[in-house]
Amino acid sequence: MSQNAPRVEVRLPATSTDRQYPIYIGRGTLEQGAILPKLLGDRGVCLVTNETVGPLYEALVLESLGDQRKVTRVLLPDGESHKTLESFGTIVTAALEDQQERSCVFIALGGGVVGDITGFAAAAFLRGADFIQIPTTLLAQVDSSVGGKTAINHPMGKNLIGAFHQPIGVIIDTMTLNTLSEREFAAGLAEVVKYGLIADAHFFHRLLESVDALKRRDQATISEVISRCCEIKADIVNQDEREGGVRAVLNFGHTFGHAIERELGFGQWLHGEAVAVGMVIATRISVARGQIDVQVLEGLVRFLETFDLPTAPPPEMGLDDFMRAMQGDKKVQSGKIRFVLLDGLGGACVTADVDESEIAASL
Ligand SMILES: NC(=O)c1ccc[n+]([C@@H]2O[C@H](COP(=O)([O-])OP(=O)(O)OC[C@H]3O[C@@H](n4cnc5c(N)ncnc54)[C@H](O)[C@@H]3O)[C@@H](O)[C@H]2O)c1
Question: Is there a single domain that holds both residue 189 and residue 159?
Fold first, then answer.
């Protein structure tokens, strides 16, 4: 992969049915004060971040907002446990108290949790305000910030209250990844390798060749990797915004992954860690069916191990635990669990036709 990281290198149409929006990706995009003002014009802003990301990057964002506009600042507590109706209320109340108008723009500065809550608050504020994503985790940069799914959790389950609401722009500054923990960075890489498996064989091989550069978080390599992931996700979302069909392939590894998260209790394993194991299981089933070469499975396992990601289910989880947990997944349709399998490297298919013995043999 090339050595120079362009400061702003990509402007992708990651669009819904009604509009396109740019995704700016590169090193220092937040310092390039022009990007945000260009997206915002003179509109008011409700800037939402959390107590971890705020001290690191909020000042940079505030600087580029200038002092001519109304800015409401909201600092949420950190963590998935705060992706709640209460945090949603905090954001909306702050914007209302500041008399923000519907023309204001919500800005989500943080990982997927902040992005999801802020997007949902924007979707509901005065029946719908615009929002901008500034994702700061690798997972959020390659996945949650693109595609317009927004949500909060309910005590009965994750992401049960939400809306499809596309941002008006996404600004990805790869420098923000320098402060991310090894574990969170690795969890993001699990979603990265997923894109190679389901959509781009060449990208998968390039990832396997780029592990050293990724390990040292080489900015140019990371920018290119994020760009390709966003392109793939944008392409899939463009075809199927509301997950009526092809978008389901993005859930590769997620049926088993969600089962692990659910069984262990959310937060024990990071989402990306559970997805890593889910992808290994789904790839093994695909190999057993003759849909993919065993070398792909070996390459995947090697890649995950390099980043200390798990490749086997937690020892306490057996077939029955998986089956029970998967039945509770919100992706279940008419009582049928839907699985995403590989169909050649760079291709995926969705099927409900996987029997328990196949799963048992692949755990
Ligand atoms: N909307 C979607 O399409 C979609 C897709 C995938 C996941 N999600 C959601 O995303 C959430 C997970 O996102 P996540 O993995 O980003 O978790 P997260 O938002 O909890 O962030 C992980 C941790 O990293 C910290 N952090 C964020 N950026 C940092 C930085 N630059 N430096 C140091 N620390 C930083 C956060 O404060 C947090 O402690 C889940 O709620 C999941 O449901 C949504």
Answer: no
CA distance 34 to 324: 51
Nearest CA to ligand 1 atom 13: 112
- CATH code of the domain containing 152: 3.40.50.1970
Q: Is the CB of 112 within 6 Å of ligand 1?
A: yes
Q: Which ligand 1 atom sits closest to the C-alpha of 191?
A: 6
Q: Is residue 149 part of a domain?
A: yes
pTM value is 0.94
The pLDDT assigned to 175 comes to 95
- 241 and 204 in one domain? yes
- Helix intervals (H) in 210-270: 211-215, 219-239, 254-264
Instruction: Tell me if 1 is assigned to some domain.
Output: no
Same domain, 200 and 341: yes
For the annotated catalytic residues, the residue numbers are 127, 149, 191, 233, 243, 247, 251, 254, 258, 271
- C-alpha span between 157 and 64 (Å, rounded): 37
Total domains, the chain: 2
Q: Is residue 2 part of a domain?
A: no
111 touches ligand 1 (CB under 6 Å): yes
Q: Is the pLDDT of residue 3 over 80?
A: no
Pocket mutation for ligand 1, best pick of 29, 80, 139, 222 (most atoms within 8 Å of C-beta): 139
Closest CA to 131 of 163, 160, 178, 153: 163
Within 10 Å of residue 252's Cβ, how many Cβ atoms? 27
Q: Which atom of ligand 1 is nearest to the CA of 50?
A: 37
CATH of residue 343's domain is: 1.20.1090.10
What's the pLDDT at 19?
66
For residue 5, the model assigns a pLDDT of 35
For ligand 1, the distance from its centroid to the CA atom of residue 159, given in whole angstroms, is 14
